[in-house]
What we know:
Layout: H1 2-18, H2 24-29, H3 33-48, H4 50-53, H5 59-80
Helix pairs in contact: 3-5
Amino acid sequence: NQAMGAVSGFLQNWAVALAPFIYISFINALQGVQYVFLLLASIFISIKFPKLLGEKYSKDSVFVKAVAILMVIAGLVLLVI
């Protein structure tokens, strides 16, 4: 996990270095998307390997997590504006 975090930080910094100045805020706003992928990956893993995570998903818990992700994305968008 730590290696993947280091690689993602390196790739994000590289993307910022390659991008024109006008797109830097957009790249930083894309950080909110990582939570969507994390939620989808955890749902996939819990369905495919139910004993690995031990978390049971219901419609209510997925809804609450989706709303939380939207709030994080909205907060990042407000920081960019």
